[in-house]
Prior knowledge:
Layout: E1 6-10, H1 14-31, E2 52-58, E3 61-69, H2 75-79, E4 93-101, H3 110-124, E5 129-135, H4 139-145, E6 148-149, E7 154-156, E8 159-167, H5 168-185, E9 192-193, H6 203-209, H7 219-236, E10 240-245, H8 248-259, E11 265-270, H9 273-284, E12 289-293, H10 302-311, E13 315-321, E14 323-324, E15 329-330, H11 333-342, E16 346-350, E17 367-371, E18 382-387, H12 403-408, H13 418-429, H14 433-449, E19 464-468, H15 475-484, E20 487-488, H16 494-499, E21 501-505, H17 512-528
Parallel strand pairs: 4-5, 9-20, 11-12, 11-13, 13-16, 16-17
Antiparallel strand pairs: 1-2, 2-3, 3-4, 5-8, 6-8, 7-8, 10-18, 14-15, 17-18, 19-21
Helix pairs in contact: 3-5, 6-13, 7-13, 14-17
Amino acid sequence: MEHHTLTYKIASELEEMEQIYQLNYETFVEEIPQHQQNQRRRLIDKFDRENTYIIAKDEEEVVGMIAVCANRPFSLDHKLENLDDYLPKHATPCEVRLLSVKKAYRKSMVFYQLVDLLVSYCLEKNYNMALISGTDRQIKLYKRIGFESFGPMVGTEGAMYQPMYLTKEKFATTSRAFTKMMLKKKKPTKQINFLPGPVAINKEVERAFKNTAISHRSKAFIDEMKTVQSKLCELVNAQNTQIVVGTGTLANDLVAAQMKKLPGKGLIIANGEFGYRLIDHAERLGLHYVKLEKQWNEKVTIKELECYLKTDREISWIWTVHCETSTGYLYDLDKISRFAIDYDVKLCVDACSSVGVVPVNLQNVYLASTVSGKGLGAYPGLGIVFHQEPIVPSNDIPRYLDLGQYTKTDSVPYTHSSNLILALSEAVKRVSLEGKQTLAKDVRSMLTEGGFDYLGMEDYSPGIITLPLPSVVSSRTIGDRLKENGVIVSYESDYLLKRNWIQFALMGDHSLAEFAEALAILKQIINSKVAFV
């Protein structure tokens, strides 16, 4: 029986303590006959003033607890003579007692979560050994966790216990074991998607997508296509747009195919994975160009651009990403577009990760690409190309890459998807640039407070938050563990694994509460040391 509202904490409220005493009575008087019954049905442990109680709560109800104490004498001191003679030298022990979980919750994650928090607490307090009196009913479980038996059994008939200890050397192993056990047992009831695509989808967008498919040749579809084209152009201040069945890669190939017709040569800017992919597009289509290459995440200045154009008068176009998805680096599109006007060159932009996330003004941009399944918050499957000037078909370009074919037929030269178009139309209505900016600001504050570093400041895209992890932590393991806990982040791309980075993309339908939940899980995984290398 797993509840969505379970929380785990150190007891601090009077009401929590009262419930602990009642749970103590239910377990160690009524279930395990260790103490005498009383009319008040409450049992206060004789070490209560020394105990720290770690508890599980279902809303306001305490449903599980475990106590830890570091002050001598321990309970075991009264049960075993010369307790220290049984312990390794240089032991700094604490005693763990009173493990109790209400019956209705014993097949849930409560036990594992309590012990996981206990291990983290002991590590934080620098205890190098944990002592327990393990009930004879659960000896195998305790040994599986890493506890070792010592000394004779203690207790009374019906309530026998085996003294056991867990050393600091096994704490890290125990932490990993518990994390693995919890992740294996836990089946997340929902997933929180922080991918840059496919993104988390709003319910209304999902509902629009589920409409019955209609013919791409029908008047209803053509009308809907024109409506969403108009909305997109209004969003980015563009003259024209074509929507194709495909991805951002296809949209960039469409752009490249048009640029091949331009005179002179181009300048391609790259300071991350997707800038270098533009270079690859250019290579494959045989574009004539030079490149301005920088190290990943290294700033590109207008002066550097100006130097290229002053020394090479053949440059007639510039191609750059707007948001470098691999880092979150955001180019100053307004400055670059003004610069392009001054030097009379055509500006082409990969805006796949910026449209719908930050203000984008394409008034002075010759060609630009974006996609349905990122910042616009719709499903993947539609590539979008904006263009200033009318474009006519060209027999020199393969049919599917000929932007003129789409212009000629109102973006429907071939089979299209009414489901994707309806979802995109609904998603565009819901774009909130201010909301994404506010969310990103709050997310960065939470990360800073939590001791996490991230790339860039508020001049970076609010849609991509990149976390460089310390070398002692494996980004792959962190990503895997987050996924197993229902939190989906970007980490599996080769360029992220190579740099030991993970990314939280805030491009879809997200709330700050979802990020807070994800961050708490991330902290738990790191504190458990399961991802340490």
